[in-house]
């Protein structure tokens, strides 16, 4: 069961604001990536591939943190710690959905990344099952 995203900060997941996803490398070192993110009504989500470092890290160790800072007020943020649930079903459709939210392109493959790359990657939706949510002290 995931903790609910607080209504006061839900907009950081429903408008195109970049987040920083932190995963754990095999040697225990944290690895952070700038990501597009959204919310499915229950969990924060990001999209990646099983072949990228963050995907490989989550397959080996599903503990993650997503930090999103409001670009309009950098003192306002949400940090979501939890466990990544990795889903392949619908991952390309989800990627196209967030591509349209973050860019002017209709889809990811063929516009952002070469179309032929799609066959070489296993797309993953990372649903973050929140176990701890931290908000900035000012805007709680």
Automatic annotation (TrEMBL):
The keyword Oxidoreductase applies. Keywords: Oxidoreductase. InterPro entries: F420-binding_dom_put, F420H2_bilvrd_red/Heme_oxyg, Pyridox_Oxase_N, Split_barrel_FMN-bd. Residues 6-132 form the Pyridoxamine 5'-phosphate oxidase N-terminal domain. GO terms for cellular component: cytosol. Pfam families: PNPOx_N (PF01243). GO terms for molecular function: coenzyme F420 binding; oxidoreductase activity, acting on the CH-CH group of donors. Gene3D superfamilies: Electron Transport, Fmn-binding Protein, Chain A (2.30.110.10). This is Oxidoreductase. It comes from Candidatus Promineifilum breve.
């Amino acid at each position: 069961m995931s903790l609910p995203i607080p209504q006061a900060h839900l907009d950081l997941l429903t408008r195109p604001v970049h987040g920083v996803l932190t995963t754990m490398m095999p040697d225990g070192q944290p690895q952070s990536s700038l990501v597009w993110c959204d919310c499915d009504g229950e969990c924060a989500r990001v999209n990646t591939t099983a072949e990228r470092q963050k995907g490989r890290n989550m397959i080996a160790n599903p503990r993650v943190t997503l930090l999103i800072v409001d670009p309009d007020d950098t003192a306002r943020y949400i940090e979501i710690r939890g466990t990544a649930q990795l889903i392949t079903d619908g991952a390309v459709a989800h990627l196209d959905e967030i591509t349209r939210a973050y860019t002017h392109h209709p889809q990811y493959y063929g516009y952002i990344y070469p179309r032929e790359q799609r066959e070489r990657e296993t797309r993953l939706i990372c649903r973050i099952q929140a176990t701890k949510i931290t908000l900035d002290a000012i805007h709680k």
